[in-house]
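Researcher: Please translate sequence to structure tokens.
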Amino acid sequence: MRNLKLLTLGAALSCAAIIFAQTPPRDLPSKPQGGIVSVPRPEMATRVFELKGEQYLSSLTFEDAEGGGAWEPTLPLPFNLERAEETARKELRKLTRDEIRWVFSELSMSRLRGLAGEVWYFAMTLKPVLALGEVSSDSFTVLMNASGEPGQIRRYHADRKR
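Model: Translation complete:
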């Protein structure tokens, strides 16, 4: 009989502990009031490339991508490839003088997600024409919105990714 009483008391105390553990204290505020508020950082597309032994970061913010207008893959390209290459070469000339040696190598399109939804952007890559036997890891990538407007390019530091 004594064991039954102890078992019943133990079960009752366990149930009470479980119930009270799930109930928040009454003085806990239901809404945040002041303090540090987390602000979502706008989404940003980035690509790292190497040029003459230096690493660079090509970036395009969601706002800049969205500023180029909407585009869907079922539609024709929103810009002329020749014009996009001219834009890429203009950006490349800011970093090197031998831009004439570089050729269009790759065009890719990607979707960028942001707080306001999704938007498509484009990455154009140029690579230098190499002499026979020459080896180079150089490349140049510029990110563009659907209007063909470029994003930003700056030196890349591994300890500061964005």
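Researcher: Any highlights?
Model: Residues 44 and 61 are 4 Å apart (CA to CA).
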